[in-house]
Design goal:
Elements (H helix, E strand, L loop, with lengths): L22 E6 L8 E6 L2 E7 L5 E5 L13 E3 L2 E3 L6 E2 L5 E2 L8 E2 L1 E4 L2 E5 L17 E4 L3 E3 L3 H9 L1 H6 L3 E3 L4 E6 L2 E10 L4 H10 L3 E8 L3 E7 L4 E11 L2 E10 L8 H23 L15 H9 L12
Antiparallel strand pairs: 1-11, 2-3, 3-4, 4-9, 5-6, 6-7, 7-8, 10-11, 12-20, 13-20, 14-16, 15-16, 16-17, 17-18, 18-19, 19-20
Length: 322
């Protein structure tokens, strides 16, 4: 699908902390064991996540519809979460057991790329992302909070001029924008290394100075980065979650499996180091930034990005006031 570059650039209704009808990373899969319950907040709502005895992850509104007890203090019993106050139990659909004229709001949830992903809305508008081939090995890192809004972080990823000035890369050919559907924007480019740091030299050697990158933004909340260095292929999934102090960012890093099982952890560690070394250059630059959309209107990549973001469905009931 062609991107309309001629359209005027816009920003979301809440540019610093928009809540989209989209998938959000709630926690690492390995941090939610069978029988465990944990509280989580999404778009001003309190939720609970729990893993059933069979290993399924479910997400429900946090307060029992009977008298309002917090279900994070409940207990997993079989495939249900039992309220701590009167022992009413709710399954992953929100159905009460034993049957009563009560139901609990349930949220769509999947496990993907080392994360538990929750959809912000009762109906899934688009499927969760599938990044790279299924054989990739994924590991989610603990979330970090960056003291700036969500929009600077997203536009930073698509900023080709920033790629040249801060990340010391030069494009080998014009970048290509794609719109697979209304909820997905993709940027492809091939770059060469102009930096001389250790990670730069390693990237240059591994890729023979042809770094093929695919950036894919899903619903405004998840950004996938797939890199092809020739000898090494890797992937990164970044989750953006609005936070009172800025934006909470969760990184999940993947690497291709190794023919030698003992080398798999080393390859994953190498991928993580290369990605984090690349992204570390952004942290001090983005702290405290307030995005100025006027500066993006003449950019051939940032302008379509803002047009894409402007048409994404936000949560009208629970978005922060602005």
């Amino acid at each position: 699908m062609a991107v309309n570059v001629a359209a005027s650039a816009h920003v979301p209704r809440h540019p610093e902390s928009p809540w989209f009808r989209a998938w959000y990373a709630a926690c690492a899969s390995e941090d939610l064991r069978p029988g465990q319950v944990r509280a989580w907040s999404l778009a001003g709502r309190e939720l609970v996540l729990f893993r059933t005895e069979s290993g399924q992850v479910q997400a429900l509104a946090a307060h029992c519809p009977h008298l309002g007890a917090h279900l994070a203090r409940g207990t997993v019993v079989g495939e249900c979460l039992r309220c701590p106050l009167h022992h009413l139990a709710f399954d992953g659909r929100g159905v009460c057991h034993p049957p009563r004229r009560l139901s609990q709001r349930a949220f769509p949830v999947v496990e993907r790329h080392g994360n538990v992903l929750v959809f912000n809305g009762p109906v899934v508008l688009f499927p969760p992302p599938q990044v790279g081939p299924p054989a990739l090995r994924w590991r989610a890192a603990p979330p970090v909070t960056v003291k700036c809004g969500w929009l600077p972080l997203v536009t930073n990823a698509f900023d080709i001029e920033h790629l040249r000035t801060v990340h010391l890369r030069e494009l080998r050919e014009p970048p290509r924008l794609e719109r697979p559907d209304a909820f997905t924007l993709r940027l492809r480019f091939t770059s060469r290394v102009t930096g001389t740091g250790l990670s730069d030299r390693m990237m240059k050697a591994l890729s023979q100075d042809h770094i093929r990158v695919t950036l894919t933004l899903y619903g405004g909340s998840l950004l996938a980065v797939e890199s092809d260095l020739g000898r090494v292929r890797g992937a990164l999934l970044t989750s953006f979650l609005p936070h009172p102090e800025g934006t909470q960012v969760t990184l999940s890093v993947a690497s291709a499996p190794s023919l030698l099982p003992g080398l798999a952890p080393a390859r994953l560690a190498l991928s993580r180091w290369l990605y984090t070394a690349f992204l570390h250059r952004d942290l001090s630059v983005l702290e405290g930034m307030r995005f100025q959309p006027a500066g993006a209107r003449e950019d051939p990549v940032l302008r379509p990005l803002l047009d894409f973001i402007a048409q994404l469905p936000e949560d009208p009931d629970d978005a922060p006031p602005g």
